[in-house]
Structure formats: C-alpha cells, structure tokens
Amino acid sequence: MSVEVEVNESDLAEMVEQVWESYLDPEGVSPLIPTYDENQPSEVHSSVSITGSWSGHVVYASSMAAAQRAAAAFLAMEMDEVSEEDISDTLGELANIVGGNVKAMLPSGAQLSLPQVVLAPESSARYPNAQRISGVYGIWEGEPVSISMWHSSSDNKEEEGE
Amino acid sequence: MKILIADDSRVMRQIVVRTLRQAGFGDHDLVEAADGKEALDMANAEKPDLVISDWNMPHLTGIEVLRQLRAAGNNVKFGFVTSESTPEMKEAAESSGAAFFIVKPFTAERFDEVFTPILG
Known about the structure:
CATH topology of chain B: Rossmann fold
Radius of gyration of chain A: 16 Å
CATH superfamily of chain A: CheC-like
CATH class of chain B: Alpha Beta
Order of helices and strands of chain A: HEEEHHEEEE
Order of helices and strands of chain B: EHEHEHEHEH
Strand order of the largest sheet of chain B: 2-1-3-4-5
CATH topology of chain A: Chemotaxis protein chec
CATH superfamily of chain B: Response regulator
Number of domains of chain A: 1
Number of helices of chain A: 3
Radius of gyration of chain B: 13 Å
Number of strands of chain A: 7
Number of domains of chain B: 1
Largest sheet of chain B: 5 strands, parallel
CATH architecture of chain B: 3-Layer(aba) Sandwich
Largest interface: A-B, 25 and 22 residues
Oligomer: heterodimer
Strand content of chain A: 25-35%
Number of strands of chain B: 5
C-alpha cells in the first residue's frame, strides 16, 4: 500500500482560502466560489513537483483573465498594466505557495521543485504515471480557477510502519 | 535601517515590500536580491541590518546563505519567509541562528508581530 496522502480536499481548500485572504482578496469581497467541476477549462497553468516521502505535483490553473487579475492583485497594479512576465511570475508563485503548504503537511523527507509555468491550458499538460487525487475548483470574479494535486504512482512502495 | 529582501520570485519580493509598508516599516532602506548567491554577496557588500530570505532559491538556498554568513562571522539578523515549513526546516533555521520564520501566505499583522521587536 502506498503512503496515505495526509492532505485532503478540505486541507487544500483551507490553503487556497488563505491565499485569497492574504493576497487575492484581502478585502473579502471576491472569494473563490466552488464549482466542484474538475473539468472546467483553463488557459494557463503552473505547477511544482514534490518528490521523496510523497511524489506528485501541485497544479494551479486558470483562465488568462483570472491570471491577469491575480498578477494585478499581487503587484498592486491595474489589470491593463500587467505584462506577460508579471502573469508568469504570479502563476509560479501561486503554485509555489500552495505547493509549499502541501509539502508542510506531508511526512518529512519531501523536496519541493522550483515552479514551472506554462501559458497553455492545463489539459495540454501530461504528468506520466500520476493521477489527480484532489482539487479545489472554483470561479473567481466569473473566471475559472483550480488548484489540484496529482499523485505519482512511482512511489507506491511498501512504506507502512516507517 | 537597511533591510535586504532575498527571493527569486519578483512578485514575492514586491509583496514582501508592500507588506512591510503596510505594517509600517516602509521608511527603512529596502534592497533586493534575486537568488541565494546575490543575497550572500549583498549581505556582505550592503551590510544590511536585517535579511528577510526565501528558503528555496537557485544557486544557494536561504539556509545555505545563512550558514555561510555565520561561518564567515557575519551576525546580521536573518530570518525566513517561506511557503515551505516543516519541523526540520524550522529546527535547521533556529540552530543556524535565524531570528524568525514566517510562512507564506502572510499578512501585515504577522509582519508587525515579528518585525516590531526587531525594527522597533
């Protein structure tokens, strides 16, 4: 049996909520509203990989408009002032923050990668031997945003009793 | 006082700067480093009074920067702002002489709580 994931959907939702409270919606006026639709579309995505005691990926995906809005919130700029670099950096940081928080809940001995950003839909990404195990799917100011966890089967070793 | 902010993410450096301002520390002299190597070089060259560092950075990680500074006899006040936090990391930070450990995402209230005793 593989190592039980110690991060469930409600943990993930709580991390995401903290990101909204701290950076994306500090006034508490535009929360991420859950849709529970794991097939909602995206136009851009970012990810970090975790390896070691648990292996997998944490993926942040959204529409371009939501990424632009996130960059504007992160950098305290107007949406139309945001550059592509601002958007990439923001997407990378969002994956890094959620990934870091996920890692904190895993058994010790996990490593977090630097983030990777792709200005293309999440559906274009492939995570070989990995399965999506949980996610938070929502609408932010009318735009789709999702944060999901993928577990790689490569570490499905007998590790019980560790 | 001079504060060095080390993070490979430009947006995160910006957020740290903004949060310092929101917490009332905007009058200090703020300088930035974009990776661990630059952080080490600037900590030596700029002689900051405080270093606020990310953990996971290219070239040198934050903890490596701290260890190298201490090994060279530099006792600048140094602490971490990181999205990763495990008991091992906190222990490593503390035993290497870190003054604080702030987890992302953070708020201005958290900065106020941590930096008021340090910056006055």
